[in-house]
Write a structure and sequence with these properties.
The chain has about 55 residues and is an alpha+beta fold. It is built from one helix and five strands, in the order H-E-E-E-E-E.
């Protein structure tokens, strides 16, 4: 993933809390600490749906 792609992902906000997200490159996820969710990034495309998100433990 290019640096531009990474910056684009980090510019997104959580659709539930409207707070910033942290990109986890190892897990290919955008993490919302405020919502306690991690949204998957599949083939470089963020899937920003609550039903697709993983709950943080």
């Amino acid at each position: 993933m290019s640096e531009a792609d990474r910056r684009m992902l980090e510019a997104l906000i959580c659709p539930l809390t409207l707070t910033g997200l942290r990109y986890d490159a190892e897990r290919q996820e955008l993490v919302s600490e405020a919502a306690g969710l991690a949204y998957p990034v599949r083939n470089g495309i963020p899937v920003m749906l609550k039903d697709e998100a993983r709950a943080l433990s």
